[in-house]
TrEMBL record:
Organism: Ureibacillus endophyticus
GO molecular function: copper ion binding; cytochrome-c oxidase activity
Reaction(s) catalysed (UniProt annotation): 4 Fe(II)-[cytochrome c] + O2 + 8 H(+)(in) = 4 Fe(III)-[cytochrome c] + 2 H2O + 4 H(+)(out)
Ranges of residues in domain Cytochrome oxidase subunit II copper A binding: 55-166
Lineage: Bacteria, Bacillati, Bacillota, Bacilli, Bacillales
Protein name per Swiss-Prot or TrEMBL: Cytochrome aa3 subunit 2
């Protein structure tokens, strides 16, 4: 069977694209830890303020768990509660977040902490913050007119600084 030269190029190009995209998906899933939110934790989004732990948003030190801190976060148009998150470098943090209204994003720029906040669902992530610095938290899901103004800060502070402040 004769295959035209250009036809061969296109077949090669198509096959190469397929392999390239599979590699990208594979690397981001298995190396980057990117995966869909499979949260089975649901919540009545109209009563978020009354339901624990969201009745007390903020950074909480915890004892006797596999992680050191819990960050309870409530998003709403167009802000995050708490406004600012501060945790010591090297600590293991469990982020627990939801939204009171529409879909928002929670992306800590420059890290792989990045999840979608959907009304009625609680998103979670347990991660170790191993690099000190100030990270910008942005909403990466278009949520309305104030979307671009919706941001917050994650401060990962040196343990020395932290002990000085207490
Ligand atoms: Cu919240 Cu965009």
């Amino acid at each position: 069977m004769h295959i035209h030269k250009y036809e061969k190029w296109w077949l090669t190009f198509g096959a190469a694209m397929l392999i390239a995209f599979l590699v990208i998906v594979g690397v981001s899933a298995f190396h980057g830890g990117t995966h869909p939110n499979n949260s089975k934790w649901t919540i009545n989004y109209e009563k978020v303020d009354e339901i624990a732990p969201f009745d007390n948003p903020g950074v909480h030190k915890v004892e006797g768990k596999d992680w050191d801190y819990e960050v309870v976060l409530v998003a709403s148009a167009f802000s995050y509660n708490p406004m600012e998150i501060e945790v010591p470098v090297g600590s293991k943090v469990r982020f627990i977040a939801t939204t009171k209204d529409v879909v928002h994003g929670f992306e800590v720029a420059g890290t792989n902490i990045n999840f979608m906040l959907e009304p009625g669902y609680v998103s979670e992530k347990i991660t170790t913050v191993d690099k000190a610095g100030e990270y910008v938290i942005v909403c990466n899901e278009y949520c309305g007119t104030g979307h671009a103004m919706m941001y917050s800060t994650l401060k990962v502070v040196d343990t020395d600084d932290n002990s000085n402040s207490h």
